[in-house]
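Progress against Task 2.4 (sequence-to-structure conversion) is shown through the following example record, which the project officer requested during the mid-term review.
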Amino acid sequence: MRILIYGINYAPELTGIGKYTGEMATWLAKRGNQVSVVTALPYYPEWSIHPEYKGKWWTKEYLNNVTLYRCPLYVPKQVTSVKRIIHEFSFLLGIIPVWISILFQKKYDVVICVSPPFHLGILPMIYAKLRGSKIVTHIQDLQVDAAKDLGMIKNKAVLDIMFLLERIILNNSSAVSTISPGMMAKIVSKGIAPSKILLFPNWVDGNEIKPLSPEHSLREEFGIEKEAKVILYSGNLGEKQGLEIIVDVAEAFKNRHDVLFLIVGSGGGKDNLIRLVNDAGLPNVQFLPLQPYEKLSALLATADLHLVMQKKSASDLVMPSKLTAILAAGGCPIVTASKGTSLYEVISQHEMGIIVEPESAIELKKGIETALASDLTLYQTNARKYSELFLSKENILTHLEFSLAKML
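Structure tokens generated for the chain above:
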């Protein structure tokens, strides 16, 4: 198959959507498919163009048998709702020259558009109509719903236009894929036929991410004592997670010298978190930069507990991608999730973590105290077992390739 993928995030970004889109394209290319990708200059999660791409505009490169068309975009230093909108629309404008060029190249059989940003689907949709290609809209986050429920956009007229545009894109897609049953149900509620919706969850390579002993962790490299109880949050330090609660909880543990909160990553909310920690004078919170992928198993083995944080209003609108690696590493996650959401159901049903009420420092503190006083072996064993059964990279991507071929 000739496959064209659109997505604002792509490798070498280490976390979030870019990681999965990069692995998907590489896997499909290794299977003999001709894969091209239209994407941005890499900037996430640091919200800064990566050093090796600074000063570049439109570029074409080849990476792991994939043809990449990289386009410039505006990347704000301080991320706000308005600046994020400008950021995403700048990418939509940036891809127009590439889109025109591709329009006159040999036809692609399938176009995959990764959302967010949701409006990125406009040009791929038009291409599919003009060239008779199939188009799959893959939804990692229900961006418009999240913007409304998190209060990021409050203007009703603007939201109505965004929901209308989203409906047009979804209705004109050959298939709509997403990463959880809860998100599938929300897409059905938008009037999209269930037969058109594919479950395409995020995955993990269990051969690369696996349980390691504390001796093979990064404790020694980070200067962490063997006896310390490490509570790790690793990944994007953004708006949807409600990470300020970690500071409140850490303050409640500041007299326990054996408990360390380790925050590893980058994102728009990092400076604010550092300021809150400094203002509170907390010696039990340590910040570290995002670690390279080859160190991920060792990083996860550093922790006794893993924090998977979401705001209550995010519910089934997002599914934390970091969870797949935690489970594959045999970690015990403490998850903030409301009853009835996919996240709550999967964690509780398979007994692979501790669930607490979102946005409650008191409940999070109780959950941590319970975990620190418990034998976590059952959770850790079940986590690894679940990843092997349901999150296999090979199985999930094989099913995707079969579904794409079936549409032709």
